[in-house]
Amino acid sequence: xxxxxxPRPRLRPMRESDLDAVVIVEADLYSHPWTRGNFEDSxxxxxxxxxxxxxxxxxxxxxxxxxxxxxxxxxLSVARPWQRRGIGRxxxxxxxxxxxxxxxxxxxxxxxxxxxxARALYAAEGFREVAVRRNYYPxxxxxxxxxxxxxxxxxxxx
Length: 158
Known about the structure:
Elements: E1 10-13, H1 19-29, H2 36-44, E2 49-54, E3 57-67, E4 70-78, H3 87-101, E5 106-111, H4 116-124, E6 128-139, E7 142-152
């Protein structure tokens, strides 16, 4: 009998033992990636962090930070081979549901103005632009602003 990989993707909580794979994907995707320490700190603080895996490969991951009445999406990333397949949309929906289940009425995030694909996804999923954080992100030539976007998760949410 031979071992077979399960092709069905599955979501599960991120663990410290996942971080080697996570930081490899992160470094492949971003010019200024999160460090292993950023992920360790998030896990250590108890932030809800999830990953999607299938066929023995990490496909996507996300990290939330919970606050009073709101959640903040700190990181949502899809490994390059799995982009443009709806995985980011599915993971975003899952994380929004998790935030709602934990009592958040609003889900917030920051996104680079230059990240048109992410901004389009967030807008299509009901996020609206609510503010700009000046000089928020490191960039190759100085700093880049962040567009703050919000998604109401409950009736009466702003």
